[in-house]
Design brief:
alpha+beta; 2 domains; actin-binding; actin monomer binding; Severin; 6-stranded mixed β-sheet; Twinfilin; ADF-H
């Protein structure tokens, strides 16, 4: 639950909303928090399409070290007026207190403007995310599936793959055992013999198999550049690093899925083929995978992330007595029918699967 700050729109902003939120005159406006009030900072009129106006003005309106809100009017309409985009600009270099203040006040801004008019929301932390192309990609992405829809679709994909010859590992396990191509097996064998330290695998949907598309020797800091932004992949990486003065090696399996920009069938195939593939990788390498991760983009795959995943910090909520670690608190179990957990990640975090 978000905690609102008590900050409200001042009278000037309220009058601006009343006059312009249903008008075609204003294209973009900026709202800031000043003197504990939501204040109109800047606005521009429509000259071209929303994409043209967005790319022309938004970068000029924001500050690279201070949060703000940007509202942009789309060219489309709904039953009550124009559709609007709300951008929450929260740059990495902004003070933490300011970022928290803006995050906590966003619900109030939406309420004052009219939540029904806001068709899309974007949370941006870098200038690269503030482009019409980035917004359009979000607009065109299919809506997330509910847990029930995911389950029904998984059943359909499993049945269809059975019919075309892919071995199912059991419908109750929601897994598909896709065979590896000879080239993929050779790539993993090269990883096992340390000829390479990185192998990237892809599902060939037409051939109904898992193939290799990259085998290479890379540095840990280069790993993120090999994660596609528009399609799913599997990555197997031998990570060599130092810890407590000792040389360490670890096999890391990364499942990258850029989210709902991928077709539904591709998302389901990669998800359901993951567990059997890990077993096959371990069989070919002759060792267990040390860490399994899931990421949305290459921004989440940093050397720091790998190191912390393999060497997690000691839980500050734990105490040690006579050599035995005891947790002070046990989190109670949630309700049994609440559905799947949702993950919220920053750009510098990745999700550990095991």
């Amino acid at each position: 639950m978000s905690h609102q700050t008590g900050i409200k729109a001042n009278e000037k902003l309220k009058k601006f909303f009343a006059k312009n939120c249903h008008s075609s005159k204003i294209r973009i406006f900026k709202v800031c928090i000043e003197n504990e009030e939501l204040t109109l900072a800047q606005h521009v009129e429509a000259k071209g399409t929303w994409e043209d106006d967005f790319d022309k003005h938004v970068h000029k309106m924001i500050e690279t070290d201070h949060p703000s809100y940007i509202m942009c009017r789309f060219d489309s309409k709904n039953s009550t007026g124009y559709d609007w985009l709300l951008v929450s600009w929260s740059p990495d270099d902004a003070p933490v207190r300011q970022k928290m203040l803006y995050a906590s006040t966003k619900a109030t801004l939406k309420q004052e403007f009219g939540s029904g008019q806001i068709q899309e929301e974007v949370h941006a932390t870098t200038l690269e995310e503030l482009t019409a192309a980035s917004v359009r990609k979000i607009k065109e992405a299919p809506a997330p599936l509910s847990p029930q829809e995911e389950e029904a679709l998984m059943s359909q994909v499993t049945d269809s793959m059975r019919h075309v010859g892919v071995e199912s590992r059991g419908a109750t396990l929601n897994t598909l055992n896709m065979p590896l191509s000879d080239q993929a097996k050779e790539g993993l064998a090269a990883l096992a013999s340390e000829q390479v330290n990185y192998v990237r695998l892809a599902i060939d949907i037409l051939q109904e198999r898992i193939d290799v598309d990259i085998t290479s020797v890379i540095q840990a800091k280069e790993l993120g550049t090999n994660v596609p932004e528009d399609t799913a992949r599997y990555h197997v990486f031998r990570y060599q690093y130092k810890h407590d003065g000792q040389d360490k090696k670890a096999i890391v399996f990364i499942y990258s899925m850029p989210g709902y920009s991928c077709p539904i069938k591709e998302r389901m195939l990669y998800s359901s083929s993951k567990a059997p593939l890990i077993e096959t990788v371990e069989s070919i390498l002759g060792v267990k995978v040390d860490k399994k991760m899931e990421v949305d983009s290459g921004k989440e795959v940093s050397e720091e992330c790998l190191f912390e995943a393999l060497n997690p910090a000691e839980d500050p909520m734990s105490t040690s007595t006579a050599g035995v670690t005891q947790k002070k608190f046990d989190k109670p179990k949630g309700p049994p029918n609440r559905g799947a957990k949702r993950l919220t990640k920053s750009h510098h975090q990745c999700s550990v699967l095991d």
